[in-house]
Specification:
Blueprint: H1 2-34, H2 36-65, H3 68-112, H4 115-126, H5 128-171
Helix pairs in contact: 1-3, 1-4, 2-3
Length: 195
């Protein structure tokens, strides 16, 4: 009789554990679905960041190597190519991120949050209050950034200008309209010794 009770208890505990795991897995799945806009945003940032060096180099090239009358047209053509890339790359990166999230983020959520915490997270992230806060967040960041830049500019700008001059000097580039310093020359090759 004790063996039967023990077996029933074991089966009940196993079933309870499986149900808890299924409930937790369901909550993680819901949480990932609620986080989909954040995953989309991350993918967009990755794609946009990938083109930043190309845009910077292209802008520098336009300003230094292209006649002024051709810059606008060539700039628009280059911008069209970048936009085409972004439109092609974003869905690829987004879809892969959404595919990977359950196997990468899901286990971390399951390990670090209990079922009640996952329920709270899903409720909070799905709430109108969170939506309102998320919608306001860019304004909050912008307000802080604007005030921060205004307050530190008098201190940081002279340091940035000094850095610009120091880097230019280190590279032998012109500084404030002055000619570039002569680059260190290589030692002259010695003529073969006469016998």
């Amino acid at each position: 009789m004790k063996k039967i009770k023990l077996a029933v208890l074991t089966v009940a505990l196993a079933a309870s554990s499986i149900a808890m795991a299924q409930d937790k897995a369901t909550l993680v799945k819901q949480l990932l679905e609620v986080q989909r806009p954040a995953i989309d945003g991350m993918a967009r940032i990755l794609v946009n960041d990938s083109v930043a060096p190309i845009l910077q180099a292209g802008g520098e090239y336009l300003q230094t190597q292209v006649p002024a009358e051709k810059r606008e047209a060539l700039g628009k053509a280059a911008e069209a190519e970048v936009q085409k890339y972004v439109q092609e790359a974003f869905p690829i990166v987004r879809d892969k991120a959404l595919q990977l999230a359950p196997s990468t983020v899901g286990p971390l959520l399951e390990q670090n949050f209990n079922e009640d915490e996952l329920k709270q997270l899903v409720a909070w992230l799905s709430s109108p209050l969170n939506k309102k806060f998320s919608d306001l967040n860019p304004q909050l960041g912008s307000a802080l950034t604007q005030k921060l830049v205004a307050d530190v500019r008098p201190t940081i700008d002279p340091k940035l200008q000094a850095l610009n001059v120091s880097v230019a000097k280190a590279l032998g580039a012109p500084t404030n309209g002055q000619p570039a310093a002569a680059a260190p020359s290589k030692p002259a090759a010695k003529a073969p010794a006469k016998k």
